[in-house]
Design goal:
Strand order of the largest sheet: 12-11-10-13-14
Order of helices and strands: HHHHHHHHHHHHEEEEEEEHEEHEEEEHE
Distance between the termini: 71 Å
Radius of gyration: 38 Å
Helix content: 40-55%
Strand content: 15-25%
Oligomer: single chain
Structural class: alpha+beta
């Protein structure tokens, strides 16, 4: 603390005394400081030799037999004073710089901001890694965990970026700056001192200073209000993470050995605690131990990185099966509907079953009863029949939870479908009408939508029938699928077969307007469009044979 700041604070602490008495005391202590400086001490050392200014003021007031009430510090006022003091120092620094130096100052600030921005790259990489890890889980758990993961990392980066900017800015530009520093070889005369004090009092009570302090106090109040709101959210986060940790212990007891995932959860919980404590101290104006906080953050992030690495290895060792377990059976809801030649069924129909004994149409909703109550919601509007459904009372049955835990202990993850699959059962004529009407509907200008799927075939022979001029742009390909003995000849555009040779496996990419794909080779080539053919060297058990697209309408 400098001499001037010390005497100003001492004057404020002694404000209950007469003005003349305060002048005598401050003049006396100013002389003490000057004597210590002349003896070789620095200004800060001379001031610090008096100890705590609060204790000194109490001793002086007790000597005058004045009882002083214990006053609570005004933390907001102190923080506002620090902010105003920093602004004054910055203004004082810039006022002494030439235009060239100011330009250099601006450039350096921009470079500092760019560097801090580049430090976001590893954060973005961790966010992306978390997305890859958490999205292995089923919805909505994957979104919940990923949102928590992203919030913690982004919030940590935000706090650390602010701390880094303030530390560098203060060390680079404000560390050795003292506002309106006046070096004096001897104490000023009483008249000069009094005149200066009057000017200082007027300045401190000026309108501009008062407005500035008010603005800063409002900003601090707003920041604390935001911090309280964030604390409220973090409290729920910590409660949720505590529940997750208890569930992790439950999984560990039941033989689920995903230690990387457990480390990630522990580190996320610790990070939440650290940020809670930082904001809690900020709201209550308590000082944070910078070293302890930095070490805690560093340990948490190291733990997080190690957990992510181990989790990545464990995920690589896990078998992901894109279907529910074979021992879980579906339940069925059935609706019987009438139709005519203009009826159009709108919905994600996954399969058609021919039953020539039926006059009407049976719509079956097949779903896995994971605890979800399913109900149909079929509505009719003129010729349109909308096949919808409702999910009610979503929860997880104990038997399914036990099944999932048992699968995880064996490092297997199944895809439990929540949405139902819709199967249409009707006679052959009605099914043909339904498919034709849906094809026309989804290929219309208004409802045009499509998706791609891939299937792999072995090409035996390519036949060129040049004698037929109408088919001169078409070649005939003899092919079959793996584990199929049936050879089928299909027409394919000559342009798509450029570079294709006989005796190899090729991946055929089709474009379709239907979610259901008939696996019959002739029907696939007849009802869908081949958009590309690419040679593949994949082993037979890794070849692509997609039976349906994801939902696209």
């Amino acid at each position: 603390m400098k001499k001037r700041e010390f005497l100003a604070k001492l004057r404020k602490k002694l404000s209950v005394l007469e003005e003349s008495e305060i002048d005598d005391i401050t003049r006396e202590y100013g002389g003490y400081i000057d004597e210590k400086i002349e003896s070789g001490a620095t200004e800060e050392e001379a001031v610090s030799s008096f100890g705590s200014i609060d204790e000194l003021a109490k001793e002086l007031l007790s000597a005058y037999k004045v009882k002083v009430k214990e006053e609570k510090e005004d933390p907001i006022g102190n923080f506002a004073s620090k902010v105003l003091h920093t602004i004054d120092k910055l203004i004082d620094t810039l006022s002494k710089k030439s235009p060239q130096e100011i330009v250099k100052f601006v450039v350096e600030i921009l470079i500092l901001l760019v560097i801090i921005g580049l430090l976001h790259i590893p954060v973005a990489m961790l966010v992306s890694l978390g997305k890859d890890v958490f999205y292995i889980l089923s919805s909505p758990l994957n979104r919940i965990f990923f949102t928590i993961w992203r919030f913690v990392l982004e919030f940590a980066y935000f706090i650390l970026a602010i701390i880094l900017f303030i530390r560098i800015f203060n060390a680079r530009y404000l560390k050795n700056v003292e506002v309106k520093k006046e070096k004096k070889n001897s104490p000023p005369k009483n008249a000069e001192r009094k005149q200066k004090e009057v000017v200082e009092v007027k300045q401190s009570k000026g309108a501009i200073s008062t407005i500035s302090e008010l603005i800063v106090k409002i900003c601090v109040f707003f920041l604390k209000f935001m911090a309280i709101c964030i604390l409220f959210c973090i409290s729920f986060y910590l409660i949720g993470m505590a529940i997750v940790l208890v569930f992790c212990i439950y999984l560990l007891i039941h033989g689920v050995m995903y230690f990387g995932f457990y480390l990630v959860m522990i580190s996320l919980f610790l990070l939440g605690l650290i940020f809670f404590w930082i904001l809690f101290n900020f709201v209550l104006d308590r000082k944070n131990n910078g070293v302890k906080m930095f070490v805690s953050l560093a340990v948490s992030f190291v733990l997080l990185g190690v957990g992510c690495g181990i989790a990545a290895i464990e995920v690589a060792e896990t078998e992901f099966i894109n279907s529910p377990p074979s021992d879980i059976t579906t339940e069925t809801l059935t609706e019987e509907l009438t139709m005519d030649e203009d009826t159009i069924f709108i919905g994600n129909i996954s399969d058609y079953v021919v039953d020539n004994s039926l006059e009407n149409v049976l719509v079956e909703y097949r779903y896995y009863p994971l605890g979800t109550t399913m109900s149909t919601r079929i509505t009719k509007d003129d010729d349109y029949v909308y096949l919808d459904w409702d999910l009610e009372n979503i929860y997880l049955k104990g038997e399914f939870l036990d099944h999932m835990i048992r699968d995880l202990s064996e490092k297997k993850v199944y895809n439990y479908y929540i949405e139902p699959t819709i199967v249409i059962t009707a006679n052959e004529k009605n099914i043909e009408i339904i498919r034709e009407n849906r094809q026309k509907y989804y290929q219309s200008g208004t409802n045009h939508t499509s998706c791609d799927f891939v299937r792999t075939y072995f090409i035996y022979t390519i036949i060129d029938r040049e004698e037929d001029e109408e088919e001169s742009d078409t070649l005939y390909v003899v092919l079959n699928e793996f584990q199929s003995e049936n050879l089928v000849t299909v027409p394919i555009s000559r342009a798509l077969l450029d570079g294709v040779t006989e005796g190899y496996y090729y991946e055929f990419t089709f474009n379709t307007y239907q979610s259901y794909i008939d696996t019959d080779i002739e029907n696939i080539f007849e009802e869908n469009e081949v958009v590309s053919i690419k040679k593949t060297d994949k082993p037979i058990d890794e070849q692509i044979h997609e039976d349906s697209c994801s939902v696209f309408y």
